[in-house]
Design brief:
Elements (H helix, E strand, L loop, with lengths): L2 H10 L3 H4 L3 H4 L1 E3 L6 E3 H46 L3 H15 L4 E6 L16 H9 L4 E3 L6 H5 L8 E9 L1 E10 L12 H18 L1
Antiparallel strand pairs: 1-2, 3-6, 4-5, 5-6
Length: 215
């Protein structure tokens, strides 16, 4: 009889070991980690323990993911409150830089707006290259990358040579009017495969707060 036939028979007759319970202790199979042979019953116990470990591991991951999401949601809430409390454009800009650097631990933050109005003297309203504007206008969602996509030196100054990961958030109010760039020396801080849901929410919140004071 072929091994496949034995396996098929046991699958079709699950009551076999119920009628021949003594075989569970008499039939020995290899230990999953090598070495000695063990009874089928002991192998079942080991298999169940391994499945339990895997389930516990997945449960820990789910709990950790939930806790991380809760922490990020709380940070988004705090920056939302700060943006709402800002009474002028300077207050909005201060809230952006302070919360992103201290609460979100983003080491390098650069914001550029090309709808200047009377705020032309602020550094965030310095002229940007046409390529930078075109890049921002092409973005529908935040873009994360291990390489700079726009004028890094113009955005981050002397620190630009040491930056290894970037996130670009388009600022829109119907049409594109600015770009928020985040950067880090850590190459894994922002990467192409990362989720951008919270980055998008941040971009939307900041864009709305800025637009309110630019009109």
């Amino acid at each position: 009889m072929k091994p496949e036939e034995v396996a098929a028979y046991l699958k079709e007759h699950p009551e076999f070991f119920e009628h021949h319970a003594e075989l569970m202790a008499e039939i020995y199979i290899p230990h999953p980690h090598g070495g000695r042979a063990i009874p089928i019953s002991e192998r079942q116990i080991l298999t169940l323990r391994e499945k339990n470990r895997q389930i516990e591991g997945k449960l820990r991951e789910v709990i950790q993911f939930g806790e991380e999401n809760d922490a990020i949601s709380e940070k988004v809430h705090r920056i939302s409150v700060a943006l709402l409390a800002a009474s002028d454009i300077e207050g909005v800009l201060n809230a952006v830089h302070l919360n992103l650097r201290e609460d979100f631990a983003v080491p390098h933050v650069a914001l550029r707006v090309w709808r200047a109005g009377q705020h032309v003297d602020l550094p965030e309203f310095k002229p940007v290259s046409g390529a930078s504007r075109e890049f921002a206008e092409s973005l529908v969602h935040p873009y994360c990358s291990s390489r700079a996509m726009v004028d890094t030196a113009g955005l981050f100054g002397e620190a630009s040579a040491h930056l290894r990961s970037f996130a670009y958030l388009p600022l829109r109010d119907g049409e594109s009017f600015g770009l928020l760039a985040l950067a880090s020396e850590d190459s894994q801080r922002f990467y192409p495969e990362m989720g951008t849901l919270y980055l998008k929410r941040l971009g939307d919140l900041i864009a709305a707060a800025l637009a309110r004071h630019l009109k």
